[in-house]
Specification:
single chain, alpha/beta, 3-stranded parallel β-sheet, about 40% helix, about 10% strand, Xylose isomerase-like TIM barrel domain-containing protein
């Protein structure tokens, strides 16, 4: 096994970059964001070709609500 010694600063920067790809078993945008929060991810990547996330299923007002919720929880949407 290789021992990798990284400073706390480097580890912190790596953690800031790690996100979650919402693909399976996700009800909606909010549940994916909640999963990210619960598991200390900093971002969520949504694949808009998955039926749950089809953009045409959401009104402008709903999309704004999703964006506000993610910003309020410091979750970046990718």
């Amino acid at each position: 096994m290789v021992d990798i010694n990284l400073s706390k600063e480097v580890i912190s920067k790596i953690k800031q970059k790690i996100g979650y790809q919402a693909t399976f078993n996700v009800e909606d945008f909010f549940s994916a964001i909640d999963f990210a929060i619960k598991n200390n991810f900093k971002s969520v990547e949504f694949n808009l070709s998955i039926p749950t996330f089809y953009p045409e299923k959401y009104t402008r007002k709903e999309r704004e609500k999703i964006a506000k919720y993610s910003r309020g929880n410091n979750i970046t949407i990718l």
